[in-house]
What does this fold into?
Amino acid sequence: MLVLTEAAAEVVKSVTSTPQTPDETGLRIVSSASEPGDPGALQISAATGPGENDQVIEAAGARVFVEPQAAVYLDEKVLDAQLDDQGKARFTLGTQDTGQI
It folds into this structure.
């Protein structure tokens, strides 16, 4: 299962927690792949809740919803993130076994 770093949890909370968003809001990760086992391009967007069959990952108050095809690719991965000078989120993936990001 995908793991979020502390920094990623903070970024997810910062981009999904506004006075206008429901408490259940999180980031949803989907795969654009057309072939099973191929991750294709991963897309991240805000979502008010998980899709059907999504994995729900909660860490330090952050919520991430991972659609099933993306979940296969993201198994044993670590999601890290940071905000740039303009406040734009930048996400990176590493592997859990090496801890590299």
